[in-house]
Design goal:
Length: about 500
């Protein structure tokens, strides 16, 4: 299980309202108690924060507000001591416009770094070189540079110029940044919008009727594969089999799975389909079948994600805590690696912002609110957080939920504990069991160990088609034994009786 930390909003040690590395160190007991195997930190590098740390101005240092390299080294060794792993976020598609490479590149067409970025002359009509649209807003992915009279490409903000991965010098410089952190002992990387690195060498227009989707979700090119193989050989030259997780933002399992190559590219790729589909039995059956068809078929290990810093929180999106809990049972008991986002285990909802309060250029603030640790305001943040807390922060604070055996936190803790204890849940084979409409049932099986998961995806009570020892239930008072029924949105894990 991987637990995603958004450091700015996780835990603040010095009272400046912004979470920091010391804050993470202070909460390691909590993460260990919860049963976290591996942390993924969103970017911690120096950044002007135009895109909240996804605009990196130095790949080999720490943003001073978060801490410094010495503190980072302490975090790594403390995690090693606890047998937990750490994965960093690597942002290879673009730098900040304040990165020394870009500052130099825009100085003159003769700069040694000019070719580190994508520069083009304008179209004959004086407009941008092609019709590519950048993320979040329907605006060109190109900005004109007055000084050198050319346009540069940016699939995101103008403050995030795209690197030119067709240039071997870029590949070398960026692979070096991986080595820098591997030398410091990290266990791998989550690679930001990795599918964007390969660009159409012709820089042709995107299809007119699709261009409103932004180039980010259209870019999918064969040229990516040698780039991924090179990255893999850099990373895998280190001991301990460091992991490579790719954010392939294509929302289509058949495309995403291809970024595994033939086992020589990504280790794991985010499959975001579940975040965009309705919470119904039919839809989840299809999602799982597509994973079996595309990932299992090529021997690729799947990932399961319900939440991250870019999407509305599942408790908000699914419009009920019970649904969000049932969905969590799915991602922790299907075959693959679940990724949890900080605060998901508390059942947090999106913070509600008024119009003038939105500061993220991608309008994603709601999911990024500070974590409430204590009941009393300011909830463990000495002087409050950098933005408002999510709804019901006091009732959902960690210290409150830890004491309540029926809380969302207790449900996640029990679920993760069972996952640790039962190899069948981690590695076992998967097969669907017959189930009534509106419900889903499946089996996980490894050697002698067989477990059944039963899920009611409807708002009405449903017949439970199974019996055995109840190992886990989101309806906590069902732990005594199944009574033949599943409550609305209940998820249950059984060790079936021999005969069933
Ligand atoms: C990824 C990140 C997102 C960021 C974007 C540009 O999608 O998850 O937060 O804004 O890439 O780097
Ligand atoms: Ca701080």
């Amino acid at each position: 299980m991987v637990y995603q930390i958004y450091p700015r909003s996780f835990s603040d040690s010095n009272g400046d309202g912004i979470g920091d590395l010391q804050g993470i160190l202070d909460r390691l007991d909590y993460l260990e108690w919860l049963g976290v195997d591996c942390l993924w930190l969103t970017p911690i590098y120096p950044s002007p924060m135009a895109d909240f740390s996804y605009d990196v101005s130095n790949y080999t240092d720490i943003w001073p507000t978060f801490g410094d390299l010495e503190l980072f080294d302490r975090l790594v060794s403390e995690l090693q001591r606890r047998n937990m792993r750490i994965v960093l976020d690597w942002v290879p598609n673009h730098t900040s416009d304040q990165h020394p490479w870009f500052l130099d590149a825009r100085r003159s067409k003769d700069s040694n770094y000019r070719d580190f970025y994508v520069w083009k002359d304008g179209a004959p009509d004086g407009g941008p070189p092609n019709n590519w649209v950048r993320s979040w807003v329907n605006l060109p992915a190109w900005t004109y540079d007055e000084g050198t009279e050319q346009w540069y490409l940016h699939c995101f903000l103008p403050e995030q110029p795209d690197l030119n991965w067709a240039n071997p010098a870029v590949r070398e410089a960026m692979n070096d940044t991986l080595r820098f952190w591997l030398d410091r002992g990290v266990d791998g990387f989550r690679m930001d919008v990795i599918h964007l690195l390969a660009k159409d060498p012709e820089f042709g227009d995107d299809p007119e009727d699709l261009k409103v989707l932004s180039h980010v979700v259209l870019n999918h090119r064969e040229e990516i594969h040698p780039i991924l193989r090179e990255i893999r050989s850099t990373v895998k030259a280190y001991p301990g089999d460091p992991v490579i997780v790719g954010e392939v933002y294509l929302i289509d399992a058949s495309l995403v799975a291809s970024y595994h190559g033939s086992g020589d590219e990504l280790d794991l790729a985010f499959n975001f389909e579940p975040m965009f589909r309705p919470f119904t039995a039919e839809s989840w059956r299809e999602i799982v079948d597509r994973v079996i068809e595309h990932f299992d078929a090529r021997g690729a290990w799947p990932t399961w994600v319900l939440n991250n810093h870019d999407a509305p929180r599942s408790a908000t999106r699914l419009r009920s805590l019970e649904r969000a809990q049932a969905a969590a049972v799915m991602i922790c008991t299907l075959r693959g690696t679940p990724f949890l986002f900080q605060g998901e285990e508390l059942g947090l909802e999106n913070a509600v912002l008024q119009e003038g309060e939105v500061i993220d250029p991608g309008f994603r603030d709601g999911a990024r609110a500070p974590i409430p640790w204590e009941q009393e305001s300011p909830h463990g943040w000495k002087k409050g957080g950098w933005m408002q807390f999510p709804p019901d922060a006091a009732a959902k604070a960690v210290e409150v939920q830890q004491k309540d055996p029926a809380s969302t936190l207790s449900i996640y803790k029990a679920l993760l504990e069972l996952r640790r204890q039962e190899p069948a849940l981690r590695r076992g084979d998967f097969r669907w069991l017959e189930s009534l409409p509106g419900t889903l049932s499946w089996e996980r099986c490894e050697a002698e160990s067989i477990l059944h998961v039963h899920l009611n995806l409807t708002g009405k009570e449903a017949v439970l088609e199974g019996s055995g020892e109840v190992l886990f239930s989101t309806g906590r008072d069902h732990l005594d034994g199944p009574n033949g029924a599943l409550r609305p949105h209940e998820a249950m894990i059984l060790r079936p009786n021999e005969a069933s």
